Amino acid sequence: MQELNIALVTIGALTLLLSLVAGLMRNKVYVVSEPMAAVILGMVIGPFGVDLLALAGWGDPFTILEQSARLTVGLAVMAAALRLPRRYFRANVRPMAVVLLPGMIVMWLVSGILVYLFLNVPLWTALLIGAIVTPTDPVLAGTIVTGSVAEQDIPASIRNFLSGEAGANDGLAYPIVFLPLLVLQHSSERAITEWLFSTLLWEVGAAVVIGATVGTVAGRIERKSREHDFLEETSLLSVTVAFTFTVLGGVKLLGSDGILAAFVAGLLFNRFADARDEADEQKVQETVLRLFTFPIFVFFGMAIPISEWLALGWAGVALAASILLLRRLPMMLLFHRYIRPINDSRDALFAGWFGPIGIAALFYATVAHRILGIELVWSVATLVIASSVLVHGVTATPFTKLYGQVIDRDHPQAADDQSSAFAEG
Prior knowledge:
Elements: H1 2-20, H2 22-27, H3 34-45, H4 61-83, H5 88-91, H6 93-100, H7 102-119, H8 123-132, H9 138-145, H10 148-153, H11 156-185, H12 188-227, H13 233-253, H14 258-272, H15 278-303, H16 306-326, H17 329-335, H18 345-353, H19 359-372, H20 375-410, H21 414-424
């Protein structure tokens, strides 16, 4: 019980403090982001700090991290779906298809090859690590595309693009992660068969169908409830959160990809629900996500394998830096002419840099550790995650402000005109 109280007071105090000074953190204090502060707190109170708390005292650390990450990512992808304009994916089929299909494959292969070259590990192990760090994290991305600084300096088209990509590619990373995982677990022939029929057809295909069906039904019911005054303000505040948990839990019980289903369900719910409620739904989802975000980053700080990081030596540092620089930026520069929200190389550089690696990668890393138990996969993945939290956290506000200043200087009206036209679409 004492450990629970310590967790409540430390995490609660951090959440309270950061919530009270969120504007200051994003506008003035560039060196420490909110997720970074949570990770630092976890390191301080964890086994490598003053040793006040340890996840092992509550149960299996990997199980705690996996389930906490799953809930947090589920809330994050739902928040991303509610943040998007209606019919966003229908209006942007080609740019989303480019970044979610060849774009993700390129990021996966680049990351996997870098792991293979720097660490000299077996190819499929390297590809597994590369797949884990491929998805853009919706939790960290949400801290970049929301708030007054983002609304002032980032065009709505870019914000919507990053939100849509981060929400979709967390679920779509599932087959990319499970292909090398199954190959490492079984023979190649059995792995391919299971990947095609189980992973792709059921765990991904069924997730899309179930999510779309549940989201459509829930959205229509919400609209009818609003029309007949069945929905009170207090019940509205709980609808999307309960909806997220229901989809995550129900689809997982069916053996499918709950994260992808949650995002698809959020898109369809947003499409059919009463438009008057969208702002409230988004605010509630963002608020609840904030309450989940701080604990999972604190847990991550408590569990980081510092000794394993040190064992990687300079190769680990070089690998993390190379992945942050080469995983996404070259892909965005290569494909940006096919991505309508990205108008030029300047937009591509900004969108290419801000594809952070975070809780989604943590979730897949814990899944891989549970199934395979390869410690190297865990240590490398967490090193890259921590590096992204640090580097993207430090650069988020200054790079965003610089990007906004460049847009205003070169095209004073372009950003506003593009944002308005894109939001209407």
